[in-house]
From TrEMBL, chain A:
Lineage top rank: taxon: Bacteria
GO molecular function: 4 iron, 4 sulfur cluster binding; metal ion binding
PROSITE patterns to which the protein is assigned, alphabetical: PROKAR_LIPOPROTEIN (PS51257)
Family note: Belongs to the complex I 20 kDa subunit family.
Identification of the protein by name: Ech hydrogenase subunit C
Organism phylogeny: Bacteria, Pseudomonadati, Pseudomonadota, Gammaproteobacteria, Chromatiales
Organism: Thiobaca trueperi
TrEMBL record, chain B:
Subcellular location: Endomembrane system; Membrane
Record-given protein name: Ech hydrogenase subunit A
Membrane topology: Multi-pass membrane protein
Species per Swiss-Prot/TrEMBL record: Thiobaca trueperi
One Pfam family from the record: Proton_antipo_M
Domain NADH-Ubiquinone oxidoreductase (complex I) chain 5 N-terminal, chain residue ranges per copy: 123-153
Keywords assigned by UniProt, alphabetized: Membrane, Transmembrane, Transmembrane helix
UniProt cross-references to InterPro entries, sorted A to Z: CPA3_Na-H_Antiporter_A, ND/Mrp_TM, Proton_antipo_N
Transmembrane segments: 6-21, 33-50, 70-87, 94-110, 130-148, 175-192, 198-218, 230-249, 261-281, 293-311, 331-352, 359-379, 385-408, 429-450, 470-492, 513-538, 558-582, 634-652
Cellular component GO terms, alphabetical: endomembrane system; membrane
UniProtKB/TrEMBL annotation, chain C:
Residue intervals passing through the bilayer: 6-26, 66-84, 90-110, 122-144, 156-175, 224-246, 266-285
InterPro entries with a match to the protein in the record: ComplexI_Subunit1, NADH_UbQ_OxRdtase_su1/FPO
Source organism: Thiobaca trueperi
Protein name, entry field: Formate hydrogenlyase subunit 4
Superkingdom assignment: Bacteria
Length: 149, 653, 286
């Protein structure tokens, strides 16, 4: 098992969300849920982060930011889309100015539904992302060995 | 003795030779070879006389008499020339001719005294003066080489172009190198004279040279600053002359010989020593006399390097170091230390405010000289050791920094530290030289640490007034923190990766490169081999003082493990980049974090209305927190009071 | 220099980071408990660093890694000197060099958050350096030596003579440990005005080096604190210094961040009031 599953640091970005999901997400850090138990830390900085949590339906302005943040995260990394808007655009799906879904912009690994998504669901999504991260970390290690050899 | 004569006469003749050469190119080549010759001669002197016991030289009766007359006439000539120059003074500078006349009167009163002390041994040589000669010859020579090309560019374009064309006729340009060489000759004279009157003559010549060189460009500002330097140095001159009057006509001690003055001890020699110390303080720009050195920064950079960092200001502390045994264990000595300490503290703080590289260097020069004065006032073997080491490290590192700052200004066209952003990437060689200079100035395994180490220990064991010792230690403690801040800030600018490519096409001129890299190598060598310097030059000097019973025997010297650890740290600091260069880690490049608003991985971001902007961030200058004006006033007032107190305690004792 | 001292010094080099990590882990648990949370496992800092080594490293300029190597090396040297029983002043100077190199690494990236972080870090250094330098001076006045081995062999009541200096040192310990109210160079938690300040543009193994450096620093600072009580014997000295060390966690959790100007002013006042006064009294009555 790689250590990335014991210490997943998250980056949270609200890509044109209504802030409902964001409040639920931040609730995970409060004493009631206390995700630091699992070593989860909210870093606020892509260069330190392993898991990218994105909420909202993404418009043109936030698309560039999402792409930049994703590019500045070092591998191995995973993306979790949170809430109905991040999954498909939600109630804004037909609006002229939104992309409707994070996966239109960057590759998404885990989808957490809900409007707003519940903290338990978010934590569950992160845990699922851990399995993916573990796989990628091993893959990355293999690649490095090959390059070194 | 022939070598001393050679060292004094050689630069003088060199200057005359340069003066008489009309062709520019020929002159430049001549300066180069003469500078090499000068460096070679001092090296020869050092090779012949390292670890030497103090040696004194007698001259024939006739020769002494002739030289006596020559120097007397020379002194009068210098004063008359300065009086003639005073035709340019403005209303508030009336005190300068007055001081000149007072000084001339005092000197004539001394020289024409019916019964005056006989000087049997007018020249001397000990390991400290050999070390000083080495600094003057080698560093002075390198600065001259740098100046060849620098002055060429200075006149061709850049800073001095417009004014220089109109106000610097060819004759004045020729005289420039003449003045540099005369100045070097006078420095050798100061270093080797045991005859106080002759020493005073050389002292006057350096004053004249600094005045001329500061006012060189002939602009109004330069002339004003030149006069300020002249006026303040004349205060020192008058004070020096006063000391000579006391030594000729006063009660008690009657001598014109430096070694006898020092040997007389604090009971007899304190009053003249205090007066000479005032002269030393003016020359080494201690508060309240510091303003002339700041004004002197209008001069071309090699002049700043030569006069105001590595040699001229060192003449002041050189004399103070010589007199240190007199100050040992006296209140006057403690007050002298406090003047140095106050200067160190105040100027270190003010240096944070400065944007221009030259001004930062100027303030840190004053601060470092303050540190040396602090050591001298205590006057134990350990502090003298520290003071001399500080003189060496400061001379090489500061000359390097001044020259590097000057070259950088020419190549990238900006004198501010902010303009030097990314120099490591833009001009790696230049940045390396500058970083070595900065490291040599303050970072741990290098110069300053050693000296601080020795001084802290010495201050805490001061006997005359234990409280004073603690006060000095506290001054060092509070003064080093700002030092750390402004140097690191500067280094931070140098190492920062440039936000966009800023190619600089101009090649590094050969003369300037030679001077810079030699000085960088010297700084490194001085740091790595300081135990050798100690063994060759410093230890014999302090040893002979201890042997003569002038200062107490060494106690609590630097233990060998400390030196070993420092050497290890120094080695680590050098090996690390080499290791890195041999096995660089292969990491992927990425742009800095800009809240995700970067534009295509560059250092620009998408601002309001989608406009692209380049990131800009500047250093902290803390101008609201550290108020330059107020600090200067406090420093002037405080040091003025201390100075008066020092003279009073000297007189009462 | 005894065999015992050499063992201790090499033990610091190898086990120091481990001990420092445990201190950091305990710190995080204590913080969590003060906020009525459960908190991470004790070994969490170690997991974090091992993870960072698994990650890729993104750099703005490759030279930043060089400065970080220097930072770590000089931190280790500082601790080595301390635990060898060597010169306290020298250990302090190595610590300062290491701090400067960390700032240079952040300056090298030339990104705004790192820039602000390192400028503030330098300001903090300016704030705590005087007090940190006064500590060895105080020891010197009491024991007549800058050597750690002599200080340990001092009189048991030396801590009483150094009361003011101890207070001053505890004050700047908060700055050195980057705790609130003085965490203005690299905030503890993300999402604040300076992101992660100093460390914003380090990632992967670079960030791991910084973390390991901080572990060393934890142990070094605990060592400094221990020195005050060392003559009392391990049985007394260690618990007292640990309690004081973790007292910083309480301070951390009960204070909001200060701006740089009050920080500078405050720490210089504290240095003057407690540190300098103590030195003066010592010199008068010694």
């Amino acid at each position: 098992m790689s250590f990335i599953t014991k210490s997943p640091w998250i980056l949270h970005y609200a890509a044109t969300s209504c802030n409902g999901c964001d409040i639920e997400l931040l609730a995970c850090l409060t004493p009631h849920y206390d995700v630091e138990r699992f070593g989860i830390v909210n870093t606020g900085n892509p260069k330190h982060a392993d898991i990218f949590l994105v909420t909202g339906s993404v418009n043109e302005e936030s698309r560039k930011v999402v792409e930049n943040l994703y590019a500045q995260m070092p591998d191995p990394k995973a993306v979790v889309a949170i809430g109905a808007c991040a999954l498909s655009g939600g109630i804004f799906r037909d609006a002229y100015n939104v992309y409707g879904g994070i996966d239109k912009v960057i590759p998404v690994d885990v989808y957490v539904p809900g409007c707003a998504a519940r903290p338990e669901a978010i934590i569950d999504g992160v845990v699922q992302a851990l399995a993916i991260l573990d796989e990628r970390a091993k893959e990355r290690k293999r690649q490095r060995k090959m390059v070194a050899a | 003795m022939p070598l001393i004569a050679l060292l004094i006469l050689f630069p003088l003749c060199a200057g005359l030779a340069v003066l008489s050469t009309r062709d520019i190119e020929q002159r430049e080549n001549l300066v180069r070879w003469l500078a090499y010759g000068l460096g070679g001669a001092t090296l020869l002197l050092a090779l012949l006389h390292f670890r030497t016991e103090p040696e004194f030289f007698t001259l024939g009766q006739g020769l002494t008499g002739a030289l006596d007359n020559l120097f007397m006439l020379g002194g009068i000539a210098v004063s008359l020339y300065l009086l003639y120059a005073c035709r340019q003074i403005k209303g508030r500078e009336w005190y300068i001719p007055v001081l000149l006349l007072v000084q001339m009167g005092l000197m004539l009163f001394v020289e024409l005294a019916p019964e005056h002390p006989v000087v049997a041994r007018p020249f001397y040589l000990d390991s400290f003066s050999v070390l000083m000669a080495l600094i003057v010859g080698v560093i002075g020579g390198l600065i001259c080489i740098h100046a060849v090309r620098y002055m060429h560019d200075y006149h061709a374009h850049g800073h001095g172009a417009q004014e220089a064309k109109t106000t610097c006729p060819e004759r004045r340009r020729r005289s420039f190198f003449f003045m540099l060489f005369v100045f070097l000759a006078a420095m050798f004279g100061i270093v080797f004279s045991n005859h106080l009157l002759w020493l005073f003559f050389f002292w006057e010549v350096t004053t004249l040279c600094s005045f001329w060189l500061i006012a060189y460009s002939g602009t109004d500002e330069a002339v004003r600053n030149g006069f300020r330097a002249l006026g303040i140095n004349l205060i020192g001159g008058v004070s020096f002359a006063g000391a000579l009057v006391w030594l000729t006509h006063g009660p008690g001690l009657h001598t014109w010989e430096l070694d006898q003055l020092v040997a007389a001890g604090s009971a007899l020699a304190l009053i003249p020593a205090v007066l000479i110390a005032v002269a030393g303080l003016t020359k080494s720009a201690q508060m309240p006399f510091s303003s002339w050195l700041l004004g002197a920064m209008v001069a071309p950079t090699p002049v700043s390097a030569l006069l105001h960092s590595s040699t001229l200001v060192k003449a002041g502390v050189f004399l103070l170091v010589k007199l240190a045994p007199v100050f040992h264990n006296t209140y006057a000595g403690l007050l002298l230390s406090l003047i140095g300490g106050l200067t160190f503290l105040v100027t270190s703080l003010i240096a944070i405010n400065q944007r221009s590289a030259k001004l930062v260097l100027a303030y840190s020069t004053i601060a470092n000289l303050g540190l040396i004065v602090m050591c001298v006032g205590i006057g134990t073997a350990a502090t003298l050791w520290a003071a001399i080491l500080l003189i060496v490290f400061h001379a090489v590192a500061k000359a390097l920094l001044f020259l590097a700052a000057g070259t950088t200004a020419h190549l990238i066209g900006g004198r501010d530290i902010e303009d030097m952003e990314g120099l490591v990437y833009r001009r790696p060689a230049l940045a390396a030289a500058m970083l070595i200079g900065i490291l040599g100035m303050f970072l741990a395994p290098f110069g300053m640490l050693l000296s601080k180490y020795a001084t802290l220990q010495a201050f805490l064991t001061v006997e005359v007034l234990p409280l004073g010792g603690v006060l000095l230690a506290v001054i060092i403690v509070f003064g080093s923190a700002p030092t750390l801040f402004f140097w690191s800030k500067w280094m931070g600018k140098l190492v920062a990766v440039p936000r966009r490519p800023q190619p600089s096409e101009l090649p590094l001129p050969r003369d300037e490169a030679i001077a810079l890299f030699s000085l960088a190598a010297l700084t490194t060598l001085a740091c790595a081999l300081f135990p050798l310097i100690d063994w060759l030059f410093i230890h014999p000097y302090t040893g002979s003082l201890i042997g003569a019973g002038l200062i107490p025997a060494l106690d609590g010297h630097l233990p060998w493990e400390t030196i070993a650890t420092m050497s290890f740290m120094l080695a680590a600091l050098f090996l690390l980049p080499i290791l890195f260069w041999l096995r660089p880690p292969q990491f992927q490049a990425s742009s800095g974090y800009l809240s995700g608003a970067n534009v295509d991985g560059s250092a620009s971001y998408r601002g309001a209305m989608g406009a692209e902007r380049e990131v800009a961030s500047r250093s902290y200058f803390l101008t609201d927190f550290i108020r330059e004006g107020m600090l200067t006033r406090v420093g002037l007032l405080g040091s003025g009071c201390l100075l008066i107190l020092m003279m009073l305690t000297g007189a009462i004792r | 220099m005894t065999a015992h001292a050499w063992t201790l010094a090499f033990a610091f080099l190898i086990l120091g980071p481990l001990l420092g990590a445990l201190l950091a882990g305990l710190d995080r648990i204590l913080t969590a408990r003060m906020q009525s949370r459960r908190g991470p496992p004790l070994l969490q800092p170690i997991y974090d660093v091992l993870k960072l080594f698994e990650k890729d490293t993104l750099v703005v300029t490759s030279l930043q890694t060089l400065y970080l190597w220097g930072f770590l090396l000089f931190m280790a040297i500082s601790g080595f000197i301390l635990f060898l029983g060597g010169d306290l002043l020298l250990s302090l100077f190595a610590l300062a060099v290491s701090g400067i190199l960390l700032c240079l690494a952040a300056y090298a990236t030339n990104s705004p958050y790192s820039n602000i972080g390192s400028s503030r870090e330098l300001m903090l250094m300016m704030a705590y350096e005087p007090m940190l330098l006064i500590v060895p001076l105080g020891f010197f006045l009491v024991t007549g030596s800058f050597r750690v081995s002599d200080i340990i062999a001092g009189e048991p009541w030396q801590v009483l003579e150094l009361g003011g200096i101890l207070i001053g040192f505890l004050f700047i310990l908060t700055i050195k440990l980057r705790k609130s109210p003085f965490d203005l160079s690299s905030s503890h938690h993300g999402h604040q005005e300076l992101v992660k300040g100093l460390t914003t543009d380090f990632s992967g193994s670079d960030l791991a080096l910084v973390e390991i450096g901080h572990w060393y620093e934890n142990v070094i600072l605990l060592g400094w604190l221990y020195l005050f009580f060392a003559p009392l014997g391990v049985a007394w000295a260690l618990p007292i210094s640990l309690i004081l060390f973790f007292g910083e966690v309480l301070v951390d959790n009960t204070h909001a961040r200060l701006k740089w100007a009050p920080t500078l002013r405050l720490s210089w006042w504290v240095t003057g009031l407690f540190g300098v006064t103590n030195l003066v009294l010592l010199s008068l009555f010694a």
